[in-house]
Design brief:
Number of strands: 6
Strand content: 15-25%
Shape: globular
Number of helices: 4
Largest sheet: 4 strands, antiparallel
Length: 111
């Protein structure tokens, strides 16, 4: 079973990578570019309203030295959860729950 990897950004925000999320959701590799393009342009219900993901707020390009041609992104936990719930993945419930529990920890820590 694949693990969803959680990273901590320089600002202390929990993020996941688009490539890892795509992989754990068991979506076909050849759909990656098209799926990511859809993820970035889709409309979701964020805690602050219904909108499209915002660059540098909900996602940011992931720069990797000597990276393959595939573009990768850091996704906020909230965006990753919304993408997961919106996906056609058979395992989405497991990962959506994991992301939701991370989201809860973040909001509880802010109180």
């Amino acid at each position: 079973m694949m693990e969803l990897q959680i990273f901590i950004s320089k600002k202390g925000t929990r993020v996941v990578t688009a490539t890892n999320l795509h992989m754990v959701l068991q979506l076909p590799n050849h759909h990656y570019t098209q799926n990511v393009r859809r993820w970035m342009s889709d409309v979701y219900q964020f805690h602050d309203g219904i909108r499209k993901p915002e660059h540098m707020k909900d996602y940011a390009p992931r720069k990797i030295k000597d990276a393959p041609v595939v573009k990768d992104y850091y996704l906020s936990v909230e965006l990753a959860k919304l993408i997961t719930l919106n996906s056609n993945s058979k395992v989405k419930q497991k990962y959506a729950r994991q992301l939701l529990s991370l989201e809860d920890k973040v909001s509880n820590a802010e109180l």
